Amino acid sequence: MATDRYQQPDYYQVDELLTDEQKLIRDTVRAWVKKEVSPIIEEYAQRAEFPKQLIKGLAEQGCFGPTIPVEYGGGGLDHISYGLMMQEIERGDSGVRSTASVQGSLVMYPIYAYGSEAQRKKYLPKLASGEWMGCFGLTEPDHGSNPSDMITNFKDAGDHVVLNGAKMWISNSPFADIAVVWAKDEAGVIKGLIVERGMKGFTTPETHGKWSLRASATGELVFDNVQVPKENILPNVKGLKGPLGCLSKARYGIAWGALGAAMDCYDSALRYSQERIQFGRPIGGFQLTQKKLAEMITEITKAQLLVWRLGVLMNEDRATPAQISMAKRNSVEIALNIAREARQIHGGMGITGEYPIMRHMMNLESVVTYEGTHDIHLLITGMDVTGLNAFK
Ligand code: TGC
Ligand code: FAD
After folding, report:
1. Domain spanning 134-232: CATH 2.40.110.10
2. What is the mean pLDDT of the chain?
3. CATH for the stretch 14-128
4. Of 92, 235, 296, 362, which has the highest C-beta tally within 10 A?
């Protein structure tokens, strides 16, 4: 990729809504992304390989569990700081942001929110430092949008339980040290279990051939009579609200993250439109190019204000799952549209790895599907405003 000349758009001076600490956190992560992610990410994406060397830096930047209390190794930060971190990382690459989202919101958060004190102390500091990496197993081959019908299950066997089943499409599974797995007990109640690599009967085959999130490792979780000690069951939650509570945290981060990808596409397209000469003048001088850029910055500005306001509600513990769904859906939708328009502005160069556009666009095809598809989030909004459930 060409040198990273990114400059964040801020058409409405949204920066003035941020505290000095929040701006410092954002700028520090941005500098790290420019130095460590941008120079290598295109090559790793082309090779379909996760850049494992970034784990240490992500941990040092505080990107694993930013809102988890400091006593457990987390950052003890507010939700806007967390959002800004995800924005900056995904500005670099959605796959790298995925790794941070999974580690912080889908692995550390459930252990913190639903785990025993012993589980918190055993796992959280090592996860925060990146010494251990985790993954989150909810989706199954036959149960994606409707996880309540999952068939992965465990049976009581004295001091341990026996776990059987399979999870699919699991980010980080090929290299994770632990997996937070959602499975049904003998009464059909969903519970969370911490499964450790090395437990007999537990395997994590990698999924190959992805055209999207190529710099992120995705795989399965297969449980064949895995004996899991009872002390590895998360004691303080039961039912689907357990995994969905984690998803609320992660979806919130994605709402900021996808906006980062959108801003990168806009920034690149704006610069290209000022530098690329056709018919004797910059293509940015043509009305059709200006229409594209004007619509992009309008959508980015609206989304910036939306995620910032959602962050305030999160900090006050007032954000509803449906509000989070709206923001996740909106940010990914505008990011995909902006990536497609930015690719047009770059002409033929837009399909190459010289520019980040095509990589963002392909990545966003996963982001629009995982953590609840575009249409599932629309139905959540529909249910919230009408009071009528379209799922059942
Ligand atoms: P429903 O009856 O609506 O809810 C069951 C219980 O959960 C509560 N709840 C939530 N709690 C916290 N946060 C949320 N977002 C919540 N949504 C619902 C709800 O109040 C209820 O509680 P209670 O006390 O009454 O039991 O459940 P349902 O079976 O009708 O399902 C509703 C539906 C379809 C919206 C839900 O299943 C859904 O969101 N489906 C989408 C599945 C999904 O998002 N999967 C994501 C897998 S993980 C992933 O993709 C990670 S990618 C990571 C990366 O790489 O970045
Ligand atoms: P399906 O649920 O089969 O949906 C197929 C289509 O049907 C979609 O368009 C959907 O919107 C539509 N549809 C379904 N139900 C309805 C309805 N009621 N009304 C209207 N339309 C409907 N999962 C994890 O647990 N952990 C992970 O770490 C993880 N990482 C992922 C990484 C990647 C790269 C990808 C692609 C997925 C990942 N997932 C993960 C899985 C992801 O959450 C699911 O793919 C997603 O929830 C959708 O499930 P599905 O693919 O089975 O699609």
Report:
1. yes
2. 98
3. 1.10.540.10
4. 92
